[in-house]
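Work Package 3 committed the consortium to producing structural models of liganded targets before the mid-term review. Because experimental data for this complex are still outstanding, the team generated a predictive model from sequence and the ligand definition alone, so that downstream docking and mutagenesis planning could proceed in parallel. The input record is reproduced below exactly as it was submitted to the modelling pipeline, together with the SMILES string for flavin-adenine dinucleotide.
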Amino acid sequence: MEHHSHDIVIIGGGAAGLRAAIAAVELDPKLDVAVVSKVYPMRSHTVSAEGGMAAVLRDYDNFDSHAFDTIKGSDFLADQDSVEFFVKEAPREAIQLEHWGCPFSRDPDGRISSRAFGGMTVKRTLFATDKIGFHLLHTLFQTSLKYENIHRYDEWFVTSLLVDNGRVEGVTAIEIRTGELVPILGKAVIIATGGCGRIFQFTTNGWIKTGDGMAIAYRAGVPLKDMEMVQYHPTLLPNTGILITEAARGEGGYLLNKDGERFLKKYVPNKMELGPRDILSRAEMSEINAGRGFEGPYGSYVHLDLTHLGKITIEDKLPFVKELAERYVGIDPEHEPIPVRPGQHYMMGGVHTDLHGFTGMPGLYAAGEVACVTMNGANRLGSNSLTECLVFGAEAGKAAAQYASKLASPSFGNPVDGETMMEEKRIFDRLLKHEQGERVSTIRTEMQNGMEKYVGIYRDENGLREACKLIGSLKARLTNGIVEDQDHVYNTELVSALELDFMLDVAETIPYSAILRHESRGAHYRTDFTKRDDVNFLKHSMAHKTSGPPRIDYSPVTITRWKPEERVY
Ligand SMILES: Cc1cc2nc3c(=O)[nH]c(=O)nc-3n(C[C@H](O)[C@H](O)[C@H](O)COP(=O)(O)OP(=O)(O)OC[C@H]3O[C@@H](n4cnc5c(N)ncnc54)[C@H](O)[C@@H]3O)c2cc1C
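The resulting structure, written out as tokens with the ligand in place, is given here.
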């Protein structure tokens, strides 16, 4: 059987994966690193980030302030040791990125510009107009090209981890071009596969965000942490789910209801449009439910008004917002308000790791949106995620390099070849050989609608029970799913079926974790338990895979210096 072998295998070519690759080869230039990505790296979701990345770079700012904003934003569920580590490393990563050539926007005196963002007390979000993701990913990608010992597997789809005796030994992956399943061995594996927004019906996330890495780790025995914490962003275009960045409010945009009222004064009077995303999303829904929203062909919405900002600010600071509004809604935001409504945006929960990306399984690390380190707790602040990818991507890269440089290469033989053959059977014999059955897309749509209906902004016991039942039945139905395209070459229908199989495992952990959390905290809002309960629920949920439904247990929250207090803005 053909196989490939490297010191470190990284799954994912987004911000976290590329940063990890560079950190690993910088720590030990003798190491040979593979970056495996199901799309060409520049198409990773990171490329679509708009608003900016947070880091303390100015005299008026300090680490404690960034840490406290993040912890308060998290509704006190963040582990405070990881937040303290994060805020101290953030400026180093920002400056490093600048030295690698990232074209940040600049003030007239030449310093990197910073803008206001939700939940941050001062301007600390560094930006590159409203296209930070494109520039940041380009910078990392081009830097990675300098290193001959970073090998890329573009358009290879990882299907599972190879595990021997409790230790990770590599991955199995399909080369999408040929349809062949090949083992790629590694002494260490870093999962950097991003989030799973496509589990939901209305999301800002690209089609490729299907939670593959979460499912891969979970199936191998690593718990998924805080999965009930799903972020809704308040400003999506109602027809497409395309994101209108928080930078639009950072630059001074207003949210208005149908009466032309800045309704946030009733919900977050001190922060208004710069309140955190969980509270703003619920405020919009409250206005809509009270009949103060607009009605349109794609449901109810409110207005994001930028008309008072003027041509120069919009063109200089928010050119992409203007382009999106013109192209996808046919309006010019200099003269008309933009229709917006809340939608799924980001996963606070993910693969459990320590501060260095270590998952607890020897050789296995995770970083970026797929991981839960956990610095975002029950609600992430906008612009912390890209910085998190850099800080903890670099940490995971270094930790994996230290681990891998001490080990001999894994040898190809049992049980790795046996595991690969079993994986071949699972995919090609079971999934591809069905002649009759249900279409995969029907099952996917039912999952997305069910998650939106029962596990969205508002949750209660009955709805969550329905969601658990629904996902269980969809999993059973997928065993009779049919892939009509029987070819091996560029079989994207097969890839979609495998993605749905991953999504269902990940989706199931969300209602099962949420139903046991009898409180409201951050993004997790229970209409039947509307208060936060620190006595019983100041703890992380941990979902473990079993042969039946997930088993949920808990781990403590690390509190260093900031005692939980009421979260008011
Ligand atoms: C529209 C939008 C705007 C945003 N704006 C901001 C912002 O302004 N500031 C901010 O801080 N955050 C922002 N975020 C969040 C942030 O961009 C993401 O959380 C972050 O970029 C995730 O990076 P990542 O490296 O973890 O994953 P991604 O960039 O999603 O990359 C995942 C990688 O994994 C690979 N992969 C996945 N599954 C497999 C598999 N099975 N086999 C092989 N490869 C696989 C993919 O090919 C890809 O290369 C935004 C998010 C969205 C959706």
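Reviewers should note the following from the model. The chain has a mean pLDDT of 96. These observations will guide the Year 2 experiments.
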